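Minimal example, chain plus 2-aminohexanedioic acid.
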Amino acid sequence: MTATAPAQQKITYTSTNVDLTAFHQAFDEALAAVRKAAGASHPLWIDGKAVEAPGRTPITDVSPIDTSLILGVFTAAGPEHVDLAVKAAVRAQKAWARLPWQERVRILRQAATLIRERKFELSAIMAYEVGKNRFEAMGDTEESADLIDYYCQQVEDHHGYIKPMNNLTPIERNTELLRPYGVFACVAPFNFPLALSTGMSSAALMTGNAVVYKPAEDTPWTGLKLYEVYRDAGVPAGVFSFVTGRGREMGDALWQHPGVDGVVFTGSKPVGMRIFHGLSEKWVKPCLMELGGKNAVIVTETADLDAAAEGCMRSAFGLQNQKCSATSRVYVDRKVYPAFVEKLIAKTKAITMGDVTQKDVWFGPVINERAVQHWEKAVAQAGREGKVLLGGTRLRGEVFDKGHFVAPTIAELPLESTLFLEELFAPFLAIAPVDSLDQALAEANKVEFGLTAGFFSAKQEEIDRFFDEIEAGVCYVNKRSGATTGAWPGAQAFCGWKGSGGSGKGGCGPWYVQQFMREQSRTVITG
Ligand code: UN1
């Protein structure tokens, strides 16, 4: 935190104990401005031009906090608009790829600067559009800017991925290059509508690809703001188009378009697998995917139980569990189980819930009514199979009746329950006692996902075993500020194993950017 410009201090998902007076004041002003701007109609932005789709029912973007608050009305694209956008991308990509890589990096760094300049507006929009608390919203914005800078740094550190090679004879000059594939379809989820959209698209752009971008149906306004950032930073028309629409109607038309050379997707495993299986026909196309999780935490006998309970509470209920990184299952050594559960329940009871745009509210709504129903089904199953220890009801009352609010829920379940296996993306935490570390690791690894994992223990040999044996790409030990959440560009790569990811190299990490390029070997005989 800086004393000189406190409103400008960087907030991450794990920030605690910072002086936030100026931050809250600036946030309040941004919320008021966003409310004033809400309700407008927005076109698609294709090839730098506004495009309408008069024949199609537009998407009404409402806040999950208060569904009577209409944030905007967004054009629903059809296959014909996708076709326009992809064709524009194919045309524009050639010149974009021919620019020196330093020029693309300069433009992208400018985009990062604009995100930082607009960070209160962007965060206030996300607070309303997703139902994020102020810290989660600002973390999302700051992560977006840092993602761009980190990826730019990667390109610079690798000299634009141009590498002189050895000679076999004195008369040859050999060079190895990574070059863009062409056009990427970028399909983003609602939960981190800025960071995930920015991370995926900026990596594609800076490596010389053009991007046709589809934001999630629930968060088109944040997506539009990203379009404006790129446009204002100097990304040329056609290189990045903004196309809002409904999943099946338009999303499928996008990734199935023959002009699309690759897909970068973050979202559910079923949709991701469908794209993966359908994408490659004539040849193999790159399909970079991050597909969710069912992330486990293991609490051993030697754990600091207060840290473990705090870390689990924060990662299970932050953003209402709607993070791929969220904690959804906890396996606790039977000897410390009662003490851990007591602490976990006390900490969860202390959560402030409600209109999450307010500065003291931490826990907000789930994204839509479908999410509520999904959660209700899980709670009913938990009631049949085990014991709901806390929560389990839809929240009712003045503030809650306006939106999609459900209580943070903790359920003790038999280890065989499918609630330990399936991703819910709702505030529901399954817990159970276990008899040994062997059993805990076996249970943790038995799901088809493998994104994040958390571990609480004071014993080095146990920690080593956890790292060696856990089947997950993002692993944390003794992390009180969030047992399984909070990965940050350049600090933790966000790499999903098994059903959680496609390529074995994660966003935020050092080996991500290369995946948007293919290799070309160049030999010139000079003699
Ligand atoms: C996600 O959860 O979908 O690690 C994205 C975290 C954040 C969010 C990751 N960087 O918790």
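The pocket of 2-aminohexanedioic acid is lined by residues 13, 191-192, 323-325, 485-487, 494 (CB under 6 Å). DSSP finds 14 helices and 22 strands in the chain.
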